[in-house]
Amino acid sequence: MTALLHSDLALPGLRRGKVRDVYSLPPDEGGDRLLIIASDRISAFDVVMPTPIEEKGRLLTRLSTFWLRHIERMGLCRTHLISTDVTAVPVSAFKPGGTTREQLEGRITIARAAKVIPIECVARGYLEGSGWKEYRATGAVCGVRLPAGLRQCDRLPEPIFTPATKEEAGRHDENIDFDRACAIAGRPLMERLRTLTLSIYNAACEHALSRGIIIADTKFEFGLVPGSDEPILIDEALTPDSSRFWPGDTYEPGHAQRSYDKQYLREYLERLVAAGSWNKQAPGPALPPDIVAATAGKYREAAQALTA
Ligand SMILES: Nc1ncnc2c1ncn2[C@@H]1O[C@H](COP(=O)(O)OP(=O)(O)O)[C@@H](O)[C@H]1O
Ligand SMILES: [Mg+2]
């Protein structure tokens, strides 16, 4: 097995995100299709690192596919998932010296192409990250008032919907209140997205808790397809990259939690910043093998616990 940092296929429409490469596929009877490839890239502080985390793309795809199927099976929301079968990628996509079918195995999502709704739909059941920061400053998160006296990582009385803007590459998403989200995407659509986000989050929490994992918060993206007003769930869902996972057995509010995500990486990078050798701007620093291995281990642990 080798890591995949960048894909190289003879397909049109390539867009590279921080983690995924997205190509266009010929449409089928249902409409336009995308080929989404989860690479082994990792980003922190919105900067993509030059060193891959081997197998990360496969673990992300395994988790995301598991959840998209779970969500469809429960009838919670339609999703963009069509197939993860590499044999469905046309032969003409492969060129000499380019990415091989074998390298794509386990990393691809063939998806319904949607018009992306430009709002990050975040659900929070616990108080951490930007939510904790905002609460400390204002007593509310994205305009949602919360009881006084909550501690870092406390469980909220009930999960809340805290939208954020979807910013272009290199800029940080910004938390906004519900009314501002409505001004951007329209009120009836935002009300539907709030309902969908919270119901998917609640269902996911229930499964994750049964596997000993707390989903403190998570982010969804939704899109619209021609001929329907009903949004579909797109992008990745409920992975360590889009969520905050905590081990349930050591959960204790009042301080930061050990997590299943990029904790090792962030701590390493913060040490570099403190030493004056990195400034949180691109390009990111090369990562040492112990940090790569520890991070890969975290992704493996989460995928194993949730999908096995
Ligand atoms: N079904 C879909 N239709 C259209 N765009 C999609 C779909 N699913 C995912 N996307 C887009 O593909 C990109 C995925 O790549 P990613 O590396 O996650 O990007 P980012 O750096 O924006 O997080 C995102 O911009 C996401 O909005
Ligand atoms: Mg993304």
Keywords:
D-amino Acid Aminotransferase, Chain A, domain 1, alpha+beta, binds adenosine-5'-diphosphate, 308 residues, 7 helices, binds magnesium ion, Phosphorylase Kinase, domain 1
Write up this protein:
The protein has helices at residues 56-73, 101-104, 129-138, 178-185, 187-210, 263-274, 289-307; strands at residues 15-16, 20-28, 31-38, 43-44, 47-48, 81-83, 108-112, 115-116, 119-126, 140-141, 144-145, 155-161, 164-165, 213-224, 232-234, 243-247. The chain is α+β, with helices and mostly antiparallel strands. It has two domains: 15-113, Phosphorylase Kinase, domain 1, CATH 3.30.200.20; 116-250, ATP-grasp fold, B domain (D-amino Acid Aminotransferase, Chain A, domain 1), CATH 3.30.470. Strands 8, 9, 12, 13, 14, 15 and 16 form a seven-stranded antiparallel beta sheet that branches. A five-stranded antiparallel beta sheet has the order 1-2-3-7-6. The longest helix has 24 residues, at 187-210. The protein is globular. The two termini are 21 Å apart. The mean pLDDT is 96. Bound molecules: adenosine-5'-diphosphate and magnesium ion (MG). Adenosine-5'-diphosphate binds at residues 17-20, 22, 34, 36, 80, 111-114, 116, 221, 223, 234-235.
